[in-house]
Design brief:
Layout (H helix, E strand, L loop, with lengths): L9 E4 L10 E3 L4 E8 L2 E12 L4 E12 L3 E3 L9 H11 L6 E5 L5 E5 L7 E9 L5 H12 L7 E9 L8 E3 L9 E2 L10 E5 L1 H10 L5 E5 L14 E5 L6 E5 L2 E7 L4 H18 L5
Parallel strand pairs: 1-3, 6-7, 9-10, 9-15, 11-12, 11-13, 13-14, 15-17
Antiparallel strand pairs: 2-5, 3-4, 4-5, 7-8, 16-17
Length: about 290
């Protein structure tokens, strides 16, 4: 797959490199899109170029044809050229019947292209959390950040892996916090006086229950992502934990991911995701 790192490295011209060896090349240009009129309309060819010199305009030393003619199509609608995942997915949809390259125009009218799109370059990250509230807090924060474009350069795709705690609602069930709106008792607002409760929470919840209601017999379902009885990550993940010391890169059941504190800010969530992706790419040998 060829996907220029920055759209400013792509130049557009009407002059073919084959016909204009003396034409100077802008120093940032690494690829040239040549648009030419034919009997059936406009046709695009894409070249990789190397040049020499120290001026803003430089002499081309090597020109390599990448794609031409019916191999190349242009996507009509302007897109956010910084969203690498979006462009790869769109190109993969359009590359069929001999097409291997798609040219995209940005909202600022700059252009880039994707040649031989490879969707496997996209990193899938699971959002591991519980509901209600719905959507989960972590999903809500990440989707807002994603919509802002802050992850556009990372080439990542999120999917939810959430568990619904409403399945445990009941008169004898005890949840950690009343703000969840779950039907049952809550550690922060109710008193438990009899044996036989079902506590749905983490180890902190368990300690609180035993401190508040010593001697009572109860059953326990652990929902801590590190020791959960009801769910586990299926792939690279981000989740949250009430213990701040667990924040950062983590491994759960042999699967690598990252953890943020329950009180993390949007900024901290974004930083953690970037650290996770950088670590994945480093392990793949792609650098930082």
């Amino acid at each position: 797959m060829i996907f220029p790192d920055e759209y400013k490295y792509v130049g557009v011209t009407h002059i073919s490199p084959d016909d204009a060896h003396d034409e100077p090349i802008y120093f940032l240009s690494r690829y040239i899109i040549v648009e030419q009129s034919t009997d059936i309309g406009k046709e695009c060819s894409i070249y990789r170029v190397e040049h020499t010199g120290e001026d803003l305009l430089r002499k081309a030393t090597k020109v390599e044809l990448i794609a031409y003619g019916e191999q190349v199509i242009k996507y009509d609608e302007p897109l956010n050229l910084k969203d690498k995942r979006l462009l790869i997915e769109k190109a993969a949809e359009l590359c069929e019947h001999g097409v291997n390259t798609v040219i995209f125009t940005g909202l600022d009218r700059h252009v880039t292209f994707v040649h031989d799109p490879d969707p496997s370059e996209i990193i899938d990250i699971e959002i591991v959390d519980v509901v209600p509230p719905e959507p989960s807090w972590l999903s809500l924060v990440i989707r807002k950040l994603e919509a802002s474009g802050i992850f556009g350069d990372l080439c990542i795709r999120f999917k939810e892996n959430t568990k619904d705690l409403r399945q445990f609602e009941g008169d004898k069930t005890v949840f950690p916090c009343s703000s969840s709106g779950l039907k049952g008792k809550c550690l922060d607002s109710d008193i438990v006086t009899e044996d036989g409760s079902l506590l749905v929470g983490c180890e902190i919840s368990r300690k609180l229950f035993e401190s508040r209601f010593p001697g009572l017999k109860y059953d326990f379902i652990n929902i801590c992502p590190f020791r959960s009885d009801i769910y586990t990550p299926q792939g690279t993940f981000i989740t949250r934990c009430c213990l701040s010391e667990r924040s950062g890169l983590a491994t759960i059941n042999g699967i690598k991911g990252a953890v943020v504190h329950w009180g993390a800010s949007e900024f901290q969530v974004a930083l953690t995701i970037r650290e996770l992706v950088q670590n994945i790419k480093k392990e793949k040998g792609e650098g930082q």
